[in-house]
User: Fold Cytosol non-specific dipeptidase from Costertonia aggregata.
Amino acid sequence: MNEAIRKLMPKAIWNKFADLNAVPRPSKKEERVISFVMDFGKKLGLETITDTVGNVIIRKPATKGMEHKKMITLQSHLDMVHQKNNDTVFDFDTQGIEMFVQDDWVKAKGTTLGADNGMGVAAIMALLESTAIAHPPLEALFTIDEETGMTGAMGLKGGVLKGEILLNLDTEEDDEIDIGCAGGVDVTAFRNYNEKDAPRGVVAYSLIVNGLQGGHSGMQIHEGLGNANKIMNRLLHHGNECFNIRISEINGGSLRNAIPRESVALLVVDKSHSASFENKIRDLASIIQRELAITEPNLKITLTSAKVPKKVMGLGAQDKLLKAIYAAHNGVYAMSAAMEDLVETSNNIAKVTVGQGKIKISCLTRSSVNSAKMDLAQALKSVFELANCTVTFDGEYPGWNPDPNSEILEILKEQYETLFGTRPNVVACHAGLECGILGQNYPDMDMISFGPTIKGAHSPDERVSIASVQKFWKFLVAILQNTP
Assistant:
């Protein structure tokens, strides 16, 4: 299946992408991909090192006549988001990604593709291997664990890098040049609760919300996509208000930076109310499906009979949980006053798990304004504390402040217009790029970010445009030949 990928042009980058996608590389389990990249650099006879946290750095001397130019640091992250459709049988820890070509797109079979940020990694590998492309001194920085905490970038110490300009290859629209990004913080609520024996005279149901698109909780938070955790909570709250349901389990969402696509709940209701309950839930499901018909045409809400569980939540904890999730903000919170059409602040209620006497609610709060980020985080904390939860803030990372006077920005704008006959869009994004973190220890490094067009990142619908990769490669090569 992946042989078709290797025939795509330019072969240099697609072959490296196929090689990379044969290596399992989940966040926090990057040992195999670190070894893969280390072996790659050493086989080329290049200076290849790892730092104290596992980031890989490979340096390549300039081609003849370009030794006088500034060293360029090319940066991408090694890990990828692992998401799959619920009917896909796949083990991310042991299997390589199965890819296929459909029209202008490369996709994966029922899983995330890993183009985020595998295309950047592949492009850097292709440059390191090339003997025909003119370039200044190069320093490749392959960071780890970008998707679940950016701990690679956070752990990179000052003085390790030698480059003066950093090209981050991790954005997802080929007509954009990124000069800023949002920071983020994980807001997590915990609570224990007393389990009760399931009441007598009840019937049990499995309530499933699925078929949602999911996607990147930064880049796509403004698109009005459905959040499975909010939809599930709306259904459960309605059932509780009308029929005094009792919840046994909830399992919704998976990764903090992915808009949740699926949620499953196990609940019971008094037998005497079963028919009315089924009708009410189906009526509300139809209403929600009509509300989201444009953005989520494949949304499914399914209610089926289940085995009665032994335990359910206590009434007090259940009531507070449903009200807290209802009240907690999800989606865009504020738009930027500084840049048109830029989301400033948002929250993603990413994961909700309930069962065996424990509640855990995981959110990722983002903002390009640090004070606004923490203001929303405090608002969420207040809501969850009213539900008797303990709330923690973890994994905080800074935003990347735009520098509209950047020297490398002017070069990229000039090269883009020369190559493609139009001006690029100079933007800041609502995703979390590593530039803000790296800039803390390398404040004098001139940074810029760009990449090929990738759609549906962080979901099994992830895909990368073949024509866009050709454009991206042409742009990258031209940039390296025209750096300061």
